[in-house]
Design goal:
Blueprint (H helix, E strand, L loop, with lengths): L1 H14 L6 H11 L5 E2 H10 L6 H13 L3 E5 L5 E5 L8 E5 L5 E4 L2 H13 L10 E4 L3 H7 L3
Parallel strand pairs: 4-6
Antiparallel strand pairs: 1-3, 2-3, 4-5
């Protein structure tokens, strides 16, 4: 799935007349690895760990271009930091759980939730083009920390 998205993104960039090289390609490759909800800084650091020099402004610019082309979804999970992940052309997606104690962002999928959202939209006569579900709570890290004496 990740390789398919990367190829799709590269084709879409070419169709849009944007060149393939540099920071944009490095960002596409990093997002194509399928990591969930990465910040621009996460993307930048991963690209650098991979041995490529890239400027922070170039990463932000590439992310915004990818969002503008519908290749990347920008997520707001309520902490004031934008996160980014590949937007699959098939519409396949997931939602997120955020631990308000440790900040962990975990993806989840739920077919029943998707059916409920479709049912709700039908009942309200509302066409939903996109949706995002973000659950806030605790992953249990605080309980683990308190048992360790932390």
């Amino acid at each position: 799935m990740a390789a398919q998205w990367t190829e799709h993104a590269e084709r879409r960039l070419q169709e849009a007349g944007l060149r393939r090289g540099g920071a944009r390609l490095a960002v596409v490759e990093q997002l194509g690895r399928g990591h969930c909800a990465q910040t621009a800084r996460d993307v930048e650091e991963a690209v650098r760990r991979g041995g490529r020099e890239v400027g922070r402004a170039s990463v932000y610019r590439a992310l915004e271009q990818l969002v503008g082309l519908g290749l990347v979804t920008r997520l707001d999970v309520g902490d004031g930091i934008a996160r980014y992940e590949a937007a699959h052309p098939s519409g396949e997606h997931h939602h997120h759980m955020i631990c308000d104690d440790c900040g962990t962002v975990a993806p989840f999928e739920d077919d029943e939730l998707e059916r409920s959202l479709e049912h709700l939209a039908g009942r309200l006569s509302f066409r939903v083009d996109d949706h995002e579900v973000v659950l806030h709570g605790s992953c249990g890290c605080r309980e683990v920390s308190s048992r360790r004496g932390g």
